[in-house]
């Protein structure tokens, strides 16, 4: 008999989990409290239902080839970065293609998830749900929690002195959908993450003035890299290898130099504050809005008055109408009992960010509670692929006693300041994907690939680390993976080439001849000069006697 798996939530993580259950011949039942799938990607005009949704203008910040399910590429006509409507369409296509919707029970809220009395032997759970006022109880062999990390707004008003005296409008970005209601107002946006940057830019088009407050600063990335290619496509195994082997100080110096060459962050008030961890946002328009005066950068808030805001640098902005806090979210698991409820909120002690350490049986997986410097969708899929194989007994994890001992030790070291708390840091995308797929047996072997299929190996190692790489071998192998990798640039360029201009033959120009004959002429000239006694007199004492002529080329300045 197939094991029954409860999947809580039908967003990106939930769809990943349903699909992976079916791939392993498990029997999933997904509980979704709204009337549709897609989670926060399902746009709604208002926030009255208390659900976190995307705002209307949102555009994805990870390109399509790097943010798709590993056996279901985007159609080639999809833009590389897309609106939330387009992205939701992709989720719908995925769900329909694999027949996932029949396993979802909509308008169903999970009230409790508790261990059965014989849990230590069976690993089973009692799940109580409610659908339109009617409660139901069922037994499941495993549970996958896919509620995400954007459940409740984090609104730390107590950290802002005087906020209760402020008479203007106060809201969290969760409530923000469209800019229309803010026309002509003076607005302060608190917090500079991706959401804070997006909202500040959008409001700057209709507001009287937008102020953007940040404690830390940030590096601002563009969606396009040099040459106009999606910036995510430079996330390669080759670069990942260099980052691991080269000194971190050199990597940071190189990165800072490159970023400031594109945009001097200090001049724009965006530079990282001393002692703060570097972070990144993706925003193509924020620098321009700052340059045009539509957005004014400010330091952290010191105090509020009835209508003004005083900042840490001593400056004051008067007549503020609206304050929008983009201060993140809190996640919780109200359907669990203690101590499981508290343990699951501590991302750093979850085994590989998936399994709670205190369970005798590994039949509970937390899917999607991760921060990556890459696609969360891809991360949730590989978490689900691994978790379902653990449920089936095809993969194993260390015993709970060992995991709890390690978790307790880690918490103590963090408390004593011996090691840093990295729970808020973003995991490296390639490293984490390799770690999960190695557990599954789906991580490609690069040396073996170079022997068997050099062309494919070249793309895998030097090209973008797209999700298809993890469908080349092992469980879940997909026959279309090789072709998907070799055609990924075709799908990237397809939506850009909407206007093809025929190339006319160009007449041969002087520059053409210079390029064709310049190098040979230069080499011959150098050889003649080398034989010249006058030249030898000039360089005597500067060059070794047996100095090969071709080495003189190194003395020619190279264009950077």
Describe the secondary-structure layout.
Elements: E1 4-8, H1 12-23, E2 27-31, H2 84-97, E3 104-105, E4 108-115, H3 119-122, E5 125-131, E6 134-140, E7 142-145, E8 152-153, E9 169-172, E10 186-190, H4 194-204, E11 209-213, E12 219-221, H5 237-245, H6 248-262, E13 280-282, H7 286-291, E14 295-298, E15 301-304, E16 309-311, E17 316-317, E18 322-325, E19 329-330, H8 340-344, E20 364-366, H9 376-391, H10 400-415, H11 429-440, H12 446-452, H13 454-462, H14 481-486, H15 488-493, H16 510-531, H17 533-539
Parallel strand pairs: 1-2, 1-7, 2-3, 7-20, 9-18, 10-11, 10-18, 11-14, 12-13
Antiparallel strand pairs: 4-5, 5-6, 8-19, 15-16, 16-17
Pfam family, one: FMO-like
Subcellular location: Endoplasmic reticulum membrane; Microsome membrane
Protein name: Flavin-containing monooxygenase
Features:
single chain, disordered C terminus, five-stranded parallel sheet, 560 residues, globular
Describe the structure.
By secondary structure, this protein is α/β, with parallel strands linked by helices. It is 32% helix and 15% strand. It is built from 17 helices and 20 strands. It has a five-stranded parallel β-sheet, covered by helices on one side. A five-stranded parallel β-sheet has the order 9-18-10-11-14. The longest helix has 22 residues, at 510-531. The N and C termini lie far apart (66 Å). Residues 510-514 and 529-560 have low confidence and may be disordered.
Taken from the alpha-carbon principal axes, the silhouette is globular
Number of helical stretches of at least 4 residues: 17
Q: Average pLDDT, to the nearest integer? A: 89
What class, by secondary structure content? alpha/beta
Name the quaternary structure.
single chain
The largest β sheet comes out as: 5 strands, parallel
**Rg over CA atoms:** 28 Å
Which ranges are low-confidence, i.e. pLDDT below 50, for 5 or more consecutive residues? 510-514, 529-560
Q: Roughly what fraction of the amino acids lie in strands?
A: 5-15%
Number of DSSP strand runs: 20
Query: First CA to last CA: what distance?
Result: 66 Å
Q: Report the helical percentage.
A: 25-40%
């Amino acid at each position: 008999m197939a094991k029954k798996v409860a999947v809580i939530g039908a967003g990106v993580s939930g769809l990943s989990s349903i699909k992976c259950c079916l791939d392993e011949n498990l029997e999933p039942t997904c509980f979704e409290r709204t009337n549709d799938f897609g989670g926060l990607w399902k746009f709604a005009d208002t926030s009255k239902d208390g659900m976190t949704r995307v705002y209307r203008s949102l555009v994805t910040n990870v390109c399509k080839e790097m943010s798709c399910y590993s056996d279901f590429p985007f159609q080639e006509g999809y833009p590389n970065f897309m609106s939330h409507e387009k992205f939701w369409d992709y989720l719908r296509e995925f769900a329909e293609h694999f027949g996932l919707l029949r396993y979802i029970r909509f308008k169903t809220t999970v009230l409790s998830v508790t261990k059965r009395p014989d849990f230590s032997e069976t690993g089973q759970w009692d799940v109580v749900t409610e659908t339109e006022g009617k409660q139901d109880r069922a037994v499941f062999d495993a549970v996958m929690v896919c509620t995400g990390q954007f459940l409740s707004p984090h609104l730390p008003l107590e950290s802002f002195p005087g906020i209760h005296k402020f008479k203007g409008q106060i809201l969290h970005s969760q409530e923000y959908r469209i800019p229309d209601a803010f026309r002509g107002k003076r607005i302060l946006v608190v917090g500079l993450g991706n959401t804070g940057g997006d909202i500040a830019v959008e409001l700057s088009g209709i507001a009287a003035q937008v102020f953007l407050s940040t404690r830390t600063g940030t590096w601002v990335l563009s969606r396009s890299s040099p040459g106009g290619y999606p910036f995510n496509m430079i996330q390669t195994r080759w670069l990942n290898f260099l980052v691991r082997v080269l000194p971190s100080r050199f990597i940071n110096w190189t990165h800072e130099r490159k970023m400031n060459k594109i945009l001097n962050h200090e001049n724009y008030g965006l530079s990282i504050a001393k002692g703060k961890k570097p972070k990144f946002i993706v925003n193509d328009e924020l620098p321009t809005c700052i340059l045009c005066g539509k957005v004014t950068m400010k330091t952290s808030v010191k105090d509020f008055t009835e209508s003004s805001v005083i900042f840490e640098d001593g400056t004051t902005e008067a007549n503020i109408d609206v304050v929008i806090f983009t201060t993140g979210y809190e996640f919780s698991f109200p359907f669990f009992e203690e101590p499981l409820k508290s343990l699951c909120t501590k991302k750093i002690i979850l085994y590989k960010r998936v399994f709670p350490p205190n369970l005798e049986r590994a039949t509970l997986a937390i899917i999607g509670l991760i921060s990556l410097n890459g696609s969360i969708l891809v991360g949730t899929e590989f978490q689900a692929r691994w978790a379902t194989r653990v449920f089936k007994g095809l993969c194993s994890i260390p015993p709970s006693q060992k995991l709890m001992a390690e978790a307790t030790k880690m918490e103590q070291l963090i408390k004593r300041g011996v090691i840093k708390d990295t729970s808020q840091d973003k995991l490296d995308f390639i490293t984490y994907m390799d770690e999960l797929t190695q557990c599954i047996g789906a991580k490609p072997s690069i040396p073996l690939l170079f022997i068997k299929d050099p062309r494919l190996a070249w793309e895998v190692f030097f090209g973008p680390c797209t999700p298809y790489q993890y469908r080349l071998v092992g469980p879940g192998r997909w026959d279309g993976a090789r072709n998907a990798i070799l055609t990924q640039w075709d799908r990237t360029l397809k939506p850009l080439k909407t206007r093809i201009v025929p190339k006319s033959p160009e007449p041969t120009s002087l520059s053409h001849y210079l390029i064709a004959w310049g190098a040979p002429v230069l080499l011959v000239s150098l050889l003649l000069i080398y034989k010249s006694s006058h030249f030898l007199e000039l360089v005597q004492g500067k060059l070794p006697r047996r100095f090969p002529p071709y080495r003189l080329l190194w003395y020619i300045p190279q264009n950077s």
